[in-house]
Amino acid sequence: MLTLEGVSKTYKTGTFGGKPLDAVRDVSFAVRPGEVVSLIGESGSGKSTIGKMILRLLPPTEGLVSFDGMDVTTLERGALKGYYRRVQGVFQDPFSSYNPIFKADRVLEQVKDGFFPRVPRGEWDRKVEEALHSVSLNPGDCLNKYPHQLSGGQLQRLLVARALLLEIELLVADEIISMLDASTRIDVLNLLGDLKGRGLGILFITHDLSLGHYLSDRIVILRRGRIVEMGGTERVFGNPLHPYTKMLLASVPQLHRKWSDEPDGVTDTSFDGAGELVEVEEDHLVALEDSA
Amino acid sequence: MSLAVDNLQVYYRTLRGDCHALDGVTFAVADGEIMGLAGESGCGKTTLGKSLIRLDGRMRLVGGGAALDGEKLPLGNDKAMDKFRFHEVSIVPQYAMSALNPIRKVGRMISEVLGARGVSYDETLPELRRRLGLVGLDENVLDMYPIELSGGMKQRVVMVLSTLLDPSLLIADELTSALDVSSQKAVSEMLVEFRDRGFVKSAIVITHDLAVLYQIADTILVMYAGKLAEKAPAETIVHAPRHPYTKMLLASLPEVGVTYSEQRLNGIPGRPPSLFDPPTGCRFRHRCPLASEKCLEEPPFVEIEPGHHVACWEA
Questions:
Q1: Is residue B150 situated within a structural domain?
Q2: In a domain, A38, yes or no
Q3: CATH number, position B231
Q4: Does A190 touch chain B (CB under 8 A)?
């Protein structure tokens, strides 16, 4: 469905753009319908940049982003609007995603104005109600309220409902639960899982390995803009091959294992993986060291 | 006994009335203990940490107090508390990364902070260099501006500065929440090492992340809606919790190894009560699966086993 081929992004920083910064380097992967792909990386690894390029908020410097065979980067006007009907994003901070002086459900109204101006009111209200139910929100609780009257979890779910109104096929979820409380974040995760069951493809961008593992079918691990390891969730987490992946897994705080029980040396960060991606087994690619 | 907090009540003054952010908490932190303080946002954990060092203009001490090393802390008196700040009680604030002055070089900023406490920068410098070395920072960070440092480096600078005068109590608020997993591990382990080396006698680590606390804390205190829910050694909280809130909180944490399709986790339905007009009785009862008639009465925070305190009738 969505494919990225050799995508790179260079930001120009410094005075007059004198210092190029390679945020994303030669990244290729695909998201199939009904599949959750997690993009995992630390800050500065380029994961959000990739999300923004897919949503066409940024143009890639090189490479091709395509959706069902059409080149996303060159879409204009009508075609772009058609693309946004099928692909939507939800971002990290629910409180800054909303205009604080508009009622929260105005985002749903804007979808009607922008995409379905001719749908009759009654039918539209039914659609809204259905979308709210599918994200387990009670319409009475959240319609006609200002953003500050709703919790972060409710606001994030309202944004997902907004995306569902468009009958999207791909959702780019960029750190959508990192601002939420432990007791509500799991509900939003379960919601994504349910939507996946209905055939929605999800690109789940996160820095949290356990969240990535909980939800996704496939994992892409990024480091400094490059993919260091990718493949099926079980293969990557069950048999991590790249030292960076191993280091990440060893650093995740967990309730059944203490850091102090780990042998030393696993957290060695002296490597600089810049090798080619090699397929080591079916559905498992690793960028091993050039020198190795 | 390093710190003893007795029935501390701190309210926020707002136009809508008092927000009962901290409604009578009583607990103790032993010498050499790292106590983790966990709970959802809005449960009063940051208020508790802040009220032990400085009440800001909106906060009002309503009742109770705290004693550090046997000496009563004048929490309500901003001037009198000054004697204790930095020397005895020190804080690593939330968003420590933005706690550094952006237009001062790190060294100059540290010298100004020390100067304000009447401590000579030049005399402290060798110790400062040694401690920066301990946390893996080169001493030339002192000649850098904060913008030149990464998030993890800034966090370490703030930690070294906060503990420079060997305080008795360190309050670390969301120490690692903004860091990547690898720096999170390094910074957390650093705190333990500071305690082991005696730079701080005891510490309160405030975070919403129970998994991090399990790694570094000796005991964990769980708060809910301005009250204490449960306090026990970290091992007990994680493996044998008694309060239903602690149980449900732990059950909603995904771990590496748990997948949606095999084991579906559940959140806690509902949301915490408003603290402007807190409900009587147990504050968790509206979300609690075990709630009964008895819960209309407020459960006391009692010791059910040595070192294990719970506020629940069912426990």
A1: no
A2: yes
A3: 3.40.50.300
A4: yes
Is residue B276 very low, low, confident or very high in pLDDT (cuts 50, 70, 90)?
Answer: confident
Residue A292 lies in a domain: no
Select from B241, B206, B221 the least CA-distant residue to B314: B241
Q: pLDDT tens digit string along A187-230? A: 888 888 888 888 899 999 988 888 888 888 999 999 888 899 99
The total domain count for chain A is 1
Q: Which of B21, B60, B55, B27 is nearest to B272 (CA)?
A: B21
What's the predicted TM-score (pTM) here?
Answer: 0.83
What is the side-by-side strand order in the sheet with B71-73?
Answer: B17-29, B3-14, B59-68, B71-73
CB-closest option in B185, B255, B258 to A259: B185
Does A258 contact B215 at a Cβ distance shorter than 8 Å? yes
Number of structural domains in chain B: 1
What type of residue sits at position B165?
L
Which residues, numbered 221 to 250 in chain A, qualify as contacts with chain B under a Cβ-Cβ cut-off of 8 Å? 233, 237, 247-249
Distance CA B64, CA A101 (A): 40
Q: What is the pLDDT of residues B197-215, one digit of tens each?
A: 999 999 999 988 888 899 9
Quick check: B282 pLDDT over 80?
Answer: yes
Give dist(CA A185, CA A180) in Å, integer.
6
B171's enclosing H/E stretch is: strand B169-173
Please tell me whether the interface predicted TM-score (ipTM) of this complex is above 0.90.
no
Contacts of B289 (CB under 8 A, 6+ apart): B244
Residue B205 within a domain: no
Domain range for B282? 3-79+218-310
- Residue B315 included in any domain: no
Question: Which domain CATH number covers A253?
Answer: 3.40.50.300
Domain extent, residue A129, equals 2-287
* Three-state DSSP string of A244-264: HHHHHHHHCCCCCCCHHHCCC
In a domain, residue A186? The reply is yes
Does the beta carbon of A187 lie under 8 angstroms from any beta carbon of chain B?
yes
